[in-house]
Structures are given as C-alpha cells and as structure tokens.
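Known limitations

Files may contain more than one protein. Parsers should not assume a single record per file. Below, a two-record file is shown to illustrate correct handling: read the sequence, read the token line, then continue until end of file.
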Amino acid sequence: MTIPPLMKARADRQMARFCATHLPVRARTQVRLEHAWRGNDVTLIERRAPWDSRGDWTSQPIARFRYDATPPAWRVFWQRANGRWLEIEGLGSADLGVALAAVGRDHSGVFWG
C-alpha cells in the first residue's frame, strides 16, 4: 500500500529538519545530509566534499526507513558493506521522528561508525 500523501509530506518535513540540524555548523561546508524517496522508502544520505576541492561530492547511504501501512510503522534498515539492507528489529516506530532520533543516537554504531 502506498504511503498516504499527508504522511509522506510530514515525513519529508521531519527528514529535512533532521538533515538541517544533525551536523555541527562548523562541518557543513564539508559534510551535508540529504534524503531521497523511492516508493515507500526514504533514504538518509551523507554527502562529502571532495578531499582535494576538485571533483564531485561523494554520497554514502546512512539509513533507510520503510513505511508499512499495517500496522502503521516506519521500519529502520542499515546497509552492509555488500550493499544489502538489513532491518534493525525494535528500532522502528509509528513516528518517523522517533526512528530518526534513534538513528541519530546510533547506540549500535552501524549508522555513523
């Protein structure tokens, strides 16, 4: 089932707020956070400036959030080195803001290293 438009708009605002506030101000010229939608999934992406000030910014997916309609909940996934996404049981929530906060704290060390 497709994510309801109002819920997607709210999730988009929550993701944008997290991306704008999670990193320290002093680092924002070198690192930034973005998000991208694909169906019911939204991926949190870290972008880094080129080390030699030439070339393109690099992208690294940090976490993926998947909306499931029954029961309404956001599931949280992390990406292995081989590119597979694995769910972290017990980290999901009906509120995307709660799941984002858990990723920001990263008690397991799988998101931010």
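...continuing to the second record:
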Amino acid sequence: MQPLLFILLISMAPAATLWLLIRAVKWFTSGDPLPWRPAKPSPAARSIELLTQDLARLEREFARIHRDQPPAMARRLMALTLAYDDTLAACCAALDLAPPDHTPMDDIERLQTEAVLAQHGLRW
C-alpha cells in the first residue's frame, strides 16, 4: 500500500504545483489583498437630489475654507476638490451623461462638466 500511495503522490504533485502556481499568479495580478474574502459590494447609487445637496454643501465648504485660511488649507482644498470632482462625476452618471475621464479635473474640465450638468437642468 505504501508504494501505491507514494506513486500517487508523485504523479499528482506536478498537477497540484501547477494549479497552485496559476492561482498565485492570478492573485498577484488581480491586486486583491485577500482573495478568500468576498468582494465589497459597490456603493448604492445616490439620488440626484442627494448629489445636488452634496454639491451645494461642498461649495459652501470651499467658501468657508477660503475665509478661514487654516494652517492646512492646501490639503483641505485638495480633499474638497477631489470630493467635488467625484460628486460631479456621480451627477453625470445619474443623468446618463459621459462622466469625466479622470479626477482630479483641471479647472477647465470642471467648468465644462458643471456647464453640461446645468444644461441638463441640474441646479445646486
């Protein structure tokens, strides 16, 4: 019985090694740190009303940061700009418009996106 088990293990070892190697390559190339955990669900789409409220809130925050001039103003403005750009992209998606190609957007792309949203009736 021992020689039969040994032969079976020897014959299955290359296949098992190849299978593990393929799994490892897939894991490394997928960028998923923990492949055995279920994927996080994608965030639910927010309504256009909530998105316009977010845009208005973010604009008020821009004005407040410019008035207060805190020590970390540049970092706060960058974080606020990224949030604003993401909200603009979400508004485009909610209205079935082509979202911007990338974030952060430059000033011209941001103005063009705001103009397209305004042309489609979005007010904030």
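Parsers that stop after the first record will miss the second one. For reference, the second record is described as follows. The mean pLDDT is 83.
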